[in-house]
Amino acid sequence: SVSAFLLNRSSDLSFKYGMNLKLNFSHVRWEGETFYQDIDVQLTRRWTKDFRLTLMYMNQRYNKTIVEGEGGMVRSNIFIADGKYQLAPKTALRAEVQYLTTADDQGDWLYGLVELSLAPHWMLSVSDMYNAGETELHYYQGGVAFSTGAHRLQLGYGRTRAGYNCSGGVCRYVPASKGVSLSYNYNF
What we know:
Blueprint: E1 2-7, E2 19-30, E3 33-46, E4 51-63, H1 64-68, E5 73-88, E6 91-101, E7 109-118, E8 122-131, E9 138-148, E10 151-160, E11 163-167, E12 170-174, E13 177-186
Antiparallel strand pairs: 1-2, 2-3, 3-4, 4-5, 5-6, 6-7, 7-8, 8-9, 9-10, 10-13, 11-12
């Protein structure tokens, strides 16, 4: 995995509030087979003291057969826009939209998220992931989380797509589900 900062805040092209341009490349290969590869370019610019926008393009190759047992090589192009507006010193609103286009697997996907952060304890979010290709299904989620110290309690409702979910470097298979979820985490 290689990452490069092409433009940073101290550059003459970084504008008043700063701008970063990053290029990333990852390639995972085992015994002559490509498991995963991506190349992406990411532009982050702070437009005002309170608003930051990140735009990203990623070209991705994922060997679904090796990782999941079937499906072949999935080649996709992903476009992402992520904006964050600081409403008050402890209140932020973040919105994200993504579009994944591919001729492989289940076709194109759209994703949208709106998240309200009321620091230091509360987080509210709603999202929808829509398959615009094969299934035309919506995978909507809504949730509220409360954190204090090392404790985090989260309550959510929605529909989860079956597949691998990776978080913090740990990947696990998650079955399809619909309904209420409750989770508690303690960090020590």
